[in-house]
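[recover] target loaded
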């Protein structure tokens, strides 16, 4: 299935959350890249790596969000794994008193996971019996 016909609301929610996460990562990676170029980073190699990881990770998340939006079966795995990895990052942020980042991230990851694993999403992505 590769059209909006038959896309349940749960997949629309999941795609929106993934796109927001991807866009944020892309913007933050770009910001670090610009700051690396115009500023004086303590460690140039680390700054470039962080910027590259943010831009690449954001672009990949946007691609996965597009796959979920298009109801493409391959997109579910990377979408779920990304959210599972986001949970310990969010918990770490909360434990280090970075509540402004940790709480929204844990909420977004939880919403995306619930939406991706909902029966309607499973049916749309995997077919009637899940064996497609």
């Amino acid at each position: 299935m590769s059209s909006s016909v038959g896309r349940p609301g749960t997949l629309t929610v999941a795609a929106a959350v993934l796109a927001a996460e991807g866009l944020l990562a892309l913007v933050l990676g770009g910001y670090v890249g610009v700051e690396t170029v115009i500023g004086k980073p303590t460690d140039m190699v680390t700054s470039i790596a962080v910027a590259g990881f943010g831009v690449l990770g954001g672009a990949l998340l946007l691609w996965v969000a597009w796959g979920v939006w298009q109801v493409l079966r391959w997109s579910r795995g990377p979408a779920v794994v990304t959210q599972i990895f986001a949970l310990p990052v969010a918990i770490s942020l909360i434990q280090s008193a970075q509540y402004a980042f940790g709480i929204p991230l844990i909420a977004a990851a939880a919403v995306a996971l619930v939406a991706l694993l909902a029966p309607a999403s499973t049916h749309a992505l995997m077919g009637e019996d899940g064996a497609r």
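[recover] notes: The chain is about 80% helix and 0% strand.
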